[in-house]
Design a protein that fits this description.
By secondary structure, this protein is α+β, with helices and mostly antiparallel strands. It contains six helices and seven strands. It is 33% helix and 26% strand. The longest helix has 29 residues.
Length: 204
């Protein structure tokens, strides 16, 4: 006949195993929960900043879906002059930042990469004031679960200038642009060597 103490021990062990299994399932479900674009828009500045500070570029380079290379920055300044009035900052959440910092080429589902575009120093005719800095749009990409868009790495793209009006999905201009980075899971890495401070044109 089984002793009461042994029976209690068995019951306790069974309960602990059950709680552990439930906990693992809850954690798995939580990890698998898709990242909402609205949440990214509200919190992306808390992500890891890949660019140490503003990377100053000409306006046409700031509008690119991808990052601008040092060569492109220099070429634009030769063509348009040394006065760069726009800048970009790149943010990544931890899953994306870890892959990027290691130089790996495959990003896990849930990875988020955001590029914030800014205008620096302009005259606002509506208010009649000189504006020293203003956000000029935010673009980004989120790696979704396998099957979202398998032909293009399962990335969802988004863009907004107003957080209440976000364009998101398989944005064709973004999809086409990022085809150029297919070998690195559709992620450009030009910011890895981009200057963290203002790049002066020759002779400036």
């Amino acid at each position: 006949m089984e002793s009461p103490k042994k029976g209690l021990r068995c019951a306790a062990i069974a309960a602990a195993i059950f709680v552990g299994i439930v906990g693992v399932c809850v954690m798995a479900n939580k990890a698998a929960a898709p990242v909402a674009i609205a949440d990214i828009a509200a919190t992306y500045t808390s992500y890891r900043k890949v660019t140490d500070s503003d990377v100053y570029v000409n306006p046409e380079l700031a509008m690119l879906c991808r990052g601008a290379s040092r060569e492109e920055v220099e070429a634009a300044k030769i063509k348009h002059g040394p006065h760069a009035h726009t800048a970009i900052l790149v943010y990544m959440n931890e899953p994306a930042a870890q892959v990027f910092s290691r130089g790996d080429k495959v990003y896990p589902a849930g990875s988020v990469i955001v590029k914030q575009k800014r205008i620096l120093g302009f005259y606002d005719y509506k208010s009649g004031k000189n504006i020293s800095r203003a956000e000029n749009g935010v673009g980004g990409m989120v790696k979704r679960a396998a099957g979202y868009d398998p032909d293009h790495g399962d990335w969802e793209y988004f863009y907004f200038e107003d957080k209440s009006k976000i364009q998101a999905g398989r944005i064709q201009s973004c999809v086409q642009c990022h085809e150029g980075a297919k070998s690195t899971d559709y992620v450009f890495g030009t910011w890895r060597t981009a200057p963290a401070t203002r790049v002066s044109a020759a002779g400036q």
